[in-house]
Design a protein that fits this description.
The chain is α+β, with helices and mostly antiparallel strands and 198 residues long. The chain is 36% helix and 18% strand. The protein folds into two domains: 3-63, no CATH class; 74-192, no CATH class. It is built from seven helices and nine strands. The strands form three sheets. A five-stranded mixed sheet has the order 4-3-7-8-9, with helices on one face. A two-stranded antiparallel sheet has the order 1-2. The protein has a two-stranded antiparallel sheet with strand order 5-6.
């Protein structure tokens, strides 16, 4: 029996699906009529196929994704040197929750400076561009192999680094997340978050 056959509707938090539906409506990315139910919504996103929930459905809206994917969490760390950790945190929950909590953690720790430009409000300049940090974290959680026992590590000191999947393998694994069967182990290596190594 494959994992998707074990997944039950009770494994999902319906309020998280409804919150995401509301967010999609506000963003205007795609039409979601008010009468749309959770089942229909997941089917449109291909997270429910032939009556079976996909792995991605659990990772995005599960009550406890780590019950099926023990390594589905982020490990955040602040390094003063390559071996000296001065602050760290483990972040669990859905992938959406992990991204938001990770961003909150980084915002609390990044240095900022304020620039007066003559506008009514001052500009805030972050130590690292928040959009780039968010993109790196989103890429990390989307492109990893959740059947691997390795969790994602995000760290910062002089440069940010994370553990992504290789680009050429990502498409194959991303497809398996929306399929009731199949998986693929994806290799990863440590690279700076804001650019890829040659």
């Amino acid at each position: 029996m494959n994992l998707s056959e074990l997944l039950q509707w009770d494994d999902l938090a319906l309020e998280k699906i409804r919150q995401f539906m509301d967010a999609v409506r506000r963003a205007g990315r795609r039409p979601v009529p008010e009468r749309t139910g959770e089942h229909e919504f997941l089917e449109k996103l291909e997270l429910l196929k032939d009556g079976q929930l996909t792995r991605a459905a659990l990772l995005l809206f599960g009550k406890r994704p780590t019950s099926y994917f023990p390594s589905a969490f982020l490990k955040l760390g602040r390094f003063r040197s390559p071996i000296l950790i001065v602050d760290d945190r483990e972040v669990e929950g859905t992938l959406l929750e992990q991204v938001e909590e990770a961003m909150s953690w980084f915002r609390e720790r990044f240095q900022t400076k304020f620039v007066i430009t003559g506008k009514p409000q001052r500009d805030t300049i972050w130590e690292y561009p928040l959009e780039a940090v968010r993109e790196a974290i989103v890429n990390a959680v989307c492109h990893r192999d959740y059947t691997s026992p390795m969790n994602i590590q995000v760290r910062f000191h002089d440069t940010l680094a994370y553990t992504p999947a290789r680009e050429e393998e990502t498409r194959t694994y991303a497809k398996s997340l929306t399929s009731p069967t199949g998986s693929r182990t994806v290799g990863r290596r440590m690279v700076p978050a804001t650019h890829r190594e040659a």
